[in-house]
Design brief:
The chain is mainly α and 190 residues long. It is elongated and about 130 Å long. The longest helix is centred in the last third of the chain and has 37 residues. The protein folds into two domains: 28 residues; 110 residues, no CATH class. Keywords: Membrane, Transmembrane, Transmembrane helix.
Length: 190
């Protein structure tokens, strides 16, 4: 077999930028590669925990402010919905005996500390009479809220427990209610 003749060398110079393959940057040295791969054996958990704690605190504060303002997405399931908002506004628009339970109980406790049995006896009698009036106010408020909600939303769409929800809100002092009262006294919802 005969050898084929070798091709003649091409005398045209080759431009290295025209060679289509390449990564476009210099190969990093071994020291640079090792430095890039270095990371601490134990991650810096103090900074990560502090950052996570700060983010969680910011989220909680945002949720607390949103819940106090009555924003629907921050409310617990118990308080969500247009009927619950209606019941809250209805209760917040009126005056209720239940708001005075805590101050009245404080007065009764102070009267029972006195060594005079006359004051102790009548303080307890007054407390039980007051509690009966509060229960009556809760029942009346529950009936009024359910009736007003029935007129507004329709009887078939009335949520279960709406009256109880309103009655429980009457027992809380106005400044302690969550979500906060959105209406002034006397501004009953339509």
């Amino acid at each position: 077999m005969a050898k084929s003749p070798a091709p003649a060398p091409n005398d045209t110079p080759v431009d290295p930028t025209e060679t289509g393959s390449g990564k476009g940057r210099a190969t990093p040295s071994r020291a640079e590669q090792e430095a890039a791969r270095k990371r601490p054996l134990v991650p810096d958990t103090k900074e990560a925990k502090a950052r996570a704690r700060a983010e969680l605190a910011a989220q909680r504060e945002k949720a607390r402010v949103g819940m106090a303002a009555g924003e629907e997405r921050y409310l617990p399931v118990r308080d969500k919905g247009p009927q619950r908002r209606f019941a809250r506004d209805f209760v917040d628009a009126g005056w209720h005996l239940g708001e005075g339970v805590m101050p009245f109980m404080l007065i009764v406790i102070l009267l029972t500390v006195l060594p005079v049995q006359f004051f102790q006896y009548w303080a307890f009698v007054a407390l039980w009479i007051f509690i009966l009036f509060v229960i009556g106010d809760m029942i009346i408020t529950s009936i009024r809220v359910k009736r007003a909600a029935k007129d507004k939303f329709g009887e078939s769409k009335l949520e279960k427990g709406l009256g109880w929800y309103a009655a429980m809100r009457t027992v809380q002092m106005r400044f302690m209610r969550l979500p906060k009262a959105q209406v002034k006294r006397g501004q009953y919802p339509v």
